Amino acid sequence: MAERLTRYDELETVVDRIAASYGGGREIDSLESAALPNRRAVIEALNHIKPVIYMGYYSTRPLNPGNLRYAISEHLHPAYELLVEQIGRAIQYEQACGRAPVAREPDWAQAVVLRLFTRLPELRELLNEDVIAAFEGDPAAQSMEEVIFSYPAIQAITTHRIAHELYQGDVPMIPRILSEHAHGKTGIDIHPGAQIGHSFFIDHGTGVVIGETAVIGNHVKLYQGVTLGALSPRRADDPAARRRKRHPTLEDHVTIYSGATILGDTVIGEGSVIGGNVWLVNSVPPRSKVTYEARVTHARRKETAA
Fold first, then answer.
1. Engineered SS bond to 152: which of 119, 186, 267, 301, CB 3.0-4.6 Å?
2. Calpha distance 69→77 (Å, rounded)
3. pLDDT at residue 295 above 80?
4. Could you tell me the end-to-end alpha-carbon distance of the chain, in angstroms, rounded to an integer?
5. Could you give all domains of the chain from N- to C-terminal order, each with its CATH number?
6. Contacts from 69-76 at CB under 8 Å and sequence distance 24+?
7. What is the DSSP string of 4-58?
8. Which of the residue ranges 29-43, 127-141, 143-157, 205-219 would you say has the lowest mean pLDDT?
9. pLDDT for 306
């Protein structure tokens, strides 16, 4: 019994020390979590929007033109309520912290969500082209259904196209919550600010990184491990860095193979092919072919039999 009391007292001492550590005034010491957006609610909203885009692939009951509108409403109404609340919380928190660039109208969150939903037919068209690009770009794909159900690239791109709409509407926090959710699920890290054209395909996908100011044209294909990154200084050294173009532009019909790294405000010209493991910090003209040439620095001698 004495042993248990001693351990309990030690644990209570640890709790006291941790609680006291929150008085340091540091960034991680904020206790305003109740005012922050709820990540779980944001993801719940996403999980209502995705069935609206691919209704026949997510529905658990038979669908037909007669009940389609009802099925869409079942998802869109709760998604609306969730997103309006979470965007409102994000704005209120930014204002309380003095980070909101401009004042928002009382119904601003509702207008942003309705604008996103109004764009869903166009996003469905874009995503259909992405699905076709995945099917045509991967000989291992057995069907369009397989691509939609199982390809991580489609999950990542679907989430990105939703997050990008909110990012363009200057919604704080929520777009990044969505993109990092997709990152965790798929291993594909696409910043919601990246501009991506139609018929985009990421083959395999794990380890792909696409930065905030990247611009990707139409019919572009990336393989796993590709980085479209920045040569950025520290924020403290260059406060204006975030407002500048920091990431690559890929023109139409570019293919980049696995492990390639392209950094800075560079342009990869139309129709170019960038080979695996290439490191680029300079632009290349259209129809270029850039490859990495491996060198053997040491060769083992062939052992002779005794």
1. 186
2. 12
3. no
4. 72
5. 32-187 (1.10.3130.10), 207-293 (2.160.10.10)
6. 75/48, 75/49, 75/51, 76/48, 76/49, 76/52, 76/117
7. HHHHHHHHHHHHHHHHHHGGG--GGG---GGGS--HHHHHHHHHHHHHHHSHHHH
8. 29-43
9. 46
Checking if the pLDDT of 271 tops 90, the result is yes
Distance between CA atoms of residues 75 and 46, nearest Å: 10
Residue 195: pLDDT above 60?
Answer: yes
- In degrees and rounded to multiples of 5, residue 301 shows phi and psi of -75, 145
8 A C-beta contact, residue 200 and residue 183: no
- The span from the CA of 282 to the CA of 76, in Å, is 45
Pick 62 or 34 by higher pLDDT.
Answer: 62
How many residues make up the chain in this entry? Answer: 306
144-156 burial string, b = 16+ CB within 10 Å, else e?
A: eeebbeebbbbbb
Q: Are 152 and 177 in contact (CB under 8 A)?
A: no
Amino acid at position 193, single letter: G
Summary mean pLDDT of the chain = 91
Could you give the count of Cα atoms lying within 13 Å of 124 in the half-sphere of its Cβ? Answer: 13
**In whole angstroms, what separates CA 47 from the centre of its chain?**
15
CB atoms inside a 10 Å sphere around CB 65: 6
pLDDT band at 96 (very low <50, low <70, confident <90, very high): confident
Task: Classify strands 215-216 and 195-196 as parallel, antiparallel or unpaired.
Answer: parallel
Alpha helices in 97-208 (DSSP H): 108-118, 120-137, 144-150, 152-168, 174-186
Q: Tell me which residue of 174, 251, 172, 179 sits closest to 214, measured CA to CA.
A: 251
Q: To which residue do tokens 């997709």 refer? A: 182
Q: Which two tokens stand for residue 72?
A: 């869409």
CB neighbour burial string for 215-225, b if at least 16 within 10 angstroms, e if fewer: bbbbbbbbbbb
